[in-house]
Hints:
2 domains; globular; NAMLAA_amidase_2; single chain; binds zinc ion; EC 3.5.1.28; hydrolase; cell wall biogenesis/degradation; Lysozyme-like; six-stranded mixed β-sheet
Amino acid sequence: MRRVTVLVVLLALALAGCSAGQGEKDDAVVAVYPEDVAEQPAEAEAPEGPDAEELLTQLDLVTDFRDEFDHGPKDAEHQRYIVLHDTEGEGSPESVVSWWSSSGNLVAAHFVVGRDGHIVRCVPLDRIAHHAGYGDTGHNEAFGITEDGRDDMAGATPIGPSFADYGMNAWSVGIELVHVGGSGDYPPEQLEALDGLIAYIDAYYGFESEITDHKAWRSGNSDTSPEFAGYLANYQDHRTHD
Ligand SMILES: [Zn+2]
């Protein structure tokens, strides 16, 4: 509390100096301020939520970052959505990542969650992955994505022949669930892993990103599958599958 009081007094002094036009007094205030802050003991602030690195260690997760999947920076200011997908294949997360790499399309999500709860991450959270792209007409406005790309994306790794990045990619984290639509329910191990992964992402950013799925953004896509609809509603309501 003392620091706040000192800052208020200093601000008052600074304002008084400005209004009086006394340049010498302003200099004196500036000289005092950093010394005073440096003398303050470090205040122990209570953590506001779970520690991201601790949550990360609780996941069955391996890291396999691939440079070709990295389409440029995405800081917390540009993080708004977690977009869920189905792979529409049954292979392991490792095989999904290998397939993306061999395709040469530069397509990937940040995470792939296997049916047994095993997770591979192949793009860092603070980098853009190409997993969602353009949405339906009008969805930029509906989702609050007001331009096709981001103004600060010039010079980022191109996707295809002309785009630095575009649509949802520049504003989201992508998670692929190994699942084939119509094949039945998602295993509890996979859903529990997704619960933990979302908790980690929330803790990493310090806020709750909006959870959606690929077909909500682009209706031509089938993922996530109809079997996921109830789980998606639960995630959107309280961030766990059940
Ligand atoms: Zn998808």
